[in-house]
Design a protein that fits this description.
By secondary structure, this protein is of the alpha/beta class. It has 9 helices and 8 strands. The mean pLDDT is 80.
């Protein structure tokens, strides 16, 4: 019964979308074709396979993990972002890139860019409070900027371009289509999309007020998010004025966790100087 309802729902949406496309073609055939072509190119970019990491040193993959933490004042990171006219997330990603640049330099490796996976918020104004309303986006981010201000501006521009991709708004529908494919096919497609990522960043708003567990105040709140085929995942959770940053690495890609975390620390330090 549930399967039948699901199929009927997909059919109804498909007919509705087909009718909307037909009406648009009648009103503006040339514009509709151009828009459809743009959407097609965007979908191709979103789902393009990437089977090889860009990093020359963080390319090993295994099931072994190592964890680290660091933290920075939330207000200081906000001031750094405001000083450059960018968002808190742009400052966070720019600091992470600065750390990754230093990590590659310490290993005598040069790399112009890395492939980053970042969740993009797609929650609409009328969406329910619960549930997940994000889609993972992959794009290349530069390691060539030595100046943290220039790096943050470049990150901000790239992030806005990705958020404006037409395929981002279609991610739920695309996922529904992939879920209808045989498991082996959908698994291969998702694997081809994810396993070429070098690292993942995620910025999660936390609680701005004290919380307690069995009468004891929670001092810090770190998230160690899944690697999703990458070498490292750096996740920021704000908690009572502090950015609690959890670092999860694949030991085959990052065998020296302490060095990696220290480089991430240095990346944040140079961004915080902008404040």
């Amino acid at each position: 019964h549930l399967a039948r309802r699901r199929v009927l729902g997909i059919v109804r949406r498909s007919f509705g979308q087909a009718r909307a496309v037909g009406e648009a073609m009648f009103r503006d055939p040339r514009g509709t074709v151009e828009q459809a072509a743009a959407v097609g190119k965007s979908v191709a970019r979103l789902m393009a396979p990437a089977t090889t990491p860009r990093s020359p040193i963080m390319h090993g993959r295994s099931l072994s993990r190592d964890l680290g933490v660091t933290e920075v004042p939330l207000d200081d990171l906000k001031r750094s972002a405001k000083a450059v006219g960018q968002s808190l997330n742009d400052a966070f990603v720019a600091a992470t890139l600065g750390g990754l640049r230093r990590y590659h330099e310490e290993h005598g490796a040069s790399c112009d860019d890395l492939r980053m996976t970042m969740p993009i918020n797609v929650r609409g104004s009328g969406a329910d409070l619960g549930g997940n309303h994000f889609t993972p986006a992959r794009f290349l981010v530069p390691l060539t900027y030595d100046d943290p201000e220039e790096r943050m501006r470049a990150v901000g521009q790239l992030s806005r371009q990705v958020r404006d991709e037409p395929a981002i708004r279609l991610s739920e529908g695309l996922a529904g289509v992939l879920n209808q494919l045989p498991t082996s096919v959908s698994t291969a497609l998702f694997g081809a999309m994810l396993k070429g990522a070098d690292f993942v960043t995620s910025n999660v708003p936390g609680v701005p007020f004290p919380v307690y567990l069995a009468g004891a105040e929670l001092q810090s709140n770190y998230a160690f998010s899944p690697l999703a085929g990458s070498a490292a995942n750096i996740t920021l959770v704000s908690h009572c004025g502090t950015c609690c940053i959890g670092v999860n690495v694949d030991r085959a890609a990052v065998p020296d966790r302490d060095t990696f975390v220290r480089c991430i620390d240095d990346g944040f330090a140079e961004v915080l100087k902008l404040a």
